[in-house]
Write a structure and sequence with these properties.
Order of helices and strands: HHHEEH
Strand content: 5-15%
Helix content: 55-70%
Number of strands: 2
Shape: rod-shaped
Length: 167
C-alpha cells in the first residue's frame, strides 16, 4: 500500500465527474439565487410601499387636527373681529362726529363697549388729516399724527382697515 501522487492529467471519467459537479453547483447556486430574488424583491417592494403609506397616514393623522385647530381659531378670530367691527359701526351710525370728538362722550362709549362686548382697550377718533382728535384709554395718544402710517392710507382707500395691535 503505497500512496501515489499523480501529477499528470486526470483520467477521462474523473474529468467528466468534475465538470458535472461544477455544473450542478452552478445550477444550484443559480436556482437558490433565483428563488431568493423572486422571494425578496416583492418583499422589498411591499416594504417600500408600506413605508410610504405609513408616512402618508401619519402625516394625515398629525396635520389633520392641526389644520382643523387652525381653521377653528381663524373662524373664532374672524367672528370676534366681525362682532367688534359691527359694534364700532353701530357707534359711528348712532353718534355724531362732534359727539365722538368729546373725550368724555368717547369715554362713555368705551365703557359701554367694554360692558357689552369686552375686548376693547381704548377708542380714538382720527380726523381726515391723520391727527387723533379724541382718545379714551390708558395711553396718552390725543394729538398724535398717524398721517405717515400705511394703515391710515388704507383706511382712506378702503374705508376700513383691520391691522395688527398698534401702539
Amino acid at each position: 500500500m503505497t500512496n501515489e501522487v499523480s501529477l499528470g492529467p486526470a483520467p477521462e471519467g474523473d474529468q467528466d465527474l468534475l465538470v458535472s459537479q461544477r455544473r450542478y453547483r452552478k445550477m444550484r447556486i443559480a436556482a437558490v439565487l433565483s428563488v431568493s430574488i423572486v422571494a425578496i424583491v416583492p418583499l422589498l417592494i411591499m416594504t417600500g410601499v408600506n413605508a410610504y403609506q405609513y408616512q402618508q397616514a401619519l402625516r394625515t393623522e398629525v396635520t389633520g387636527p392641526l389644520v382643523r385647530f387652525a381653521a377653528n381659531g381663524k373662524q373664532s378670530l374672524e367672528s370676534f373681529l366681525s362682532e367688534r367691527l359691527s359694534a364700532l359701526a353701530m357707534v359711528v351710525r348712532e353718534r355724531s362726529y362732534e359727539e365722538l370728538r368729546d373725550s368724555r362722550q368717547l369715554n362713555r362709549v368705551l365703557v359701554n363697549l367694554r360692558q357689552a362686548f369686552g375686548g376693547f382697550v381704548d377708542l380714538g377718533v382720527i380726523d381726515e388729516q391723520g391727527v387723533q382728535v379724541s382718545y379714551a384709554g390708558p395711553y396718552e395718544l390725543e394729538g398724535r399724527s398717524y398721517s405717515d402710517y400705511n394703515w391710515f392710507h388704507e383706511v382712506g382707500v378702503r374705508g376700513l382697515y383691520v391691522s395688527d395691535v398698534f401702539m
